[in-house]
Amino acid sequence: MNYLKSSIGRKQLMGLTGLLWCGFVLSHMVGNMLIFMGPDAYNKYSHALITNPLLLLAEGALVVTLLVHIFYGLKLKFENQVARHTRYAMPTNGEKAARAHSKFMAFHGTLILVFIVYHLVTFKYGTHYVTNVDGVEMRDLHRLIIEVFQSPGYVAWYVLCLIGLGFHLSHGFYSAFASLGFYHPKYSAWLNQLGYVYAFVVAAGFISQPLYVFLFARAQ
Amino acid sequence: MGGTSQRNINLKLKVWRQKGANQQGHFEEYDAKGISTDASFLEMLDVVNQRLIKEGRDPISFDHDCREGICGSCSMVINGNPHGSERSTATCQLHMRKFNDGETVVIEPFRAKAFPVIKDLSVDRSALDQIIASGGYISVNTGNAPDANGLPVAKVDADQAFNAATCIGCGACVAACVNGSAMLFVGAKVAHLGLLPQGQPERNERVLAMMDKMQELGFGNCSNTGACAVSCPKDISFENIARMNREYAKASIKKRS
Ligand code: FES
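^ Those are the sequences you sent over. The predicted structure of the assembly is below.
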């Protein structure tokens, strides 16, 4: 059977594309932390990204890997639903329960997809304010963010989606390594813990940003 | 354990009844009265069936054979867990002292598309045999029995191969899996043979053939939920799945066609 049609091959593609996104969301979260440093630092950072010709390449890679992740994710999910077409009166429980959140990956995944699209529309393709930092004209993304996060509804939705992302990563990180064959009694427990820490740091880091803006930052 | 702690308990059973593979199933309630806490789960079902037979009703069908945890026949899901909630225990080894007086116990067949129901709790697990037949063997001519130490095997490999070889093919991993996947079963056999010198010549073909067969038979795709390994009455490690993922990728690169 063709590797890309095989059960394991497709799982490994899910894992590889997932890990690439794991790296991206971490760097995105860390970069966005500049919101705490004020408008100039934030705008300079975003300007440096926007004007970097390599950005297009990175964006292309992210879109392609995301599409692969979604395509195979859905395909596997549908196949799995057929493979377990009848349901038990109770799920596995107690010591025999499945890993937390592992059964809801398609659910969080869908939520995250909607979030990504909506958040691109709001920010990347949102109002184009212009500012001047150190004599350089650049996009005032900081102002847009401050404005958007004044809305309690938007902040609530944002936080909800990021909690979903945290759950997705809490299983996804570990699962990607397992699918790629990484498991050894020496490090697998540690890898599992690292997955939870990673998911928490990414979700909590992202969540801190809109909360900070909503509670403390006001447009000048 | 045994001893003098024996008591009798009464239970309410909610049992899945289904006449055949293509029939609609449903739950039926039964009283299991005066069950000794020293009885096994299967003996409790025997008591209930005796009464059903006496009353001229259809007894509950379930599979069993060795009743000592080695044949893997006694497949059923008890309160949501394959072989009940005790770890490292097959249904036939599950004692009624693990249940409380007055408790309601829900009993269902293993559910997976690849395991069609034959009747009630009895399911057809021959798909697992088909997976084994596709590559879970060694076909080299081994000749006479070799000297005991003629073929050195490292202790860690021997131990891991042995852990994998203890699989009794009960299918609990498939039943526990929300995806109806047989990865732990296949992974155990791939590890068992792949870790030993005799299994080397067919190592690559084996993992490819067995996985393809698993997929073809309608088992689902693993999502690393881990429910299989914790549900395994023989404690087959989840490591076997990750090892097979590695083996499969390697074999896919090496294969020549
Ligand atoms: S009857 Fe043989 S394992 Fe339970």
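Residues 173 and 195 of chain A are 5 Å apart (CA to CA). The two ends of chain A are 61 Å apart (CA to CA).

Shout if you want it in another format.
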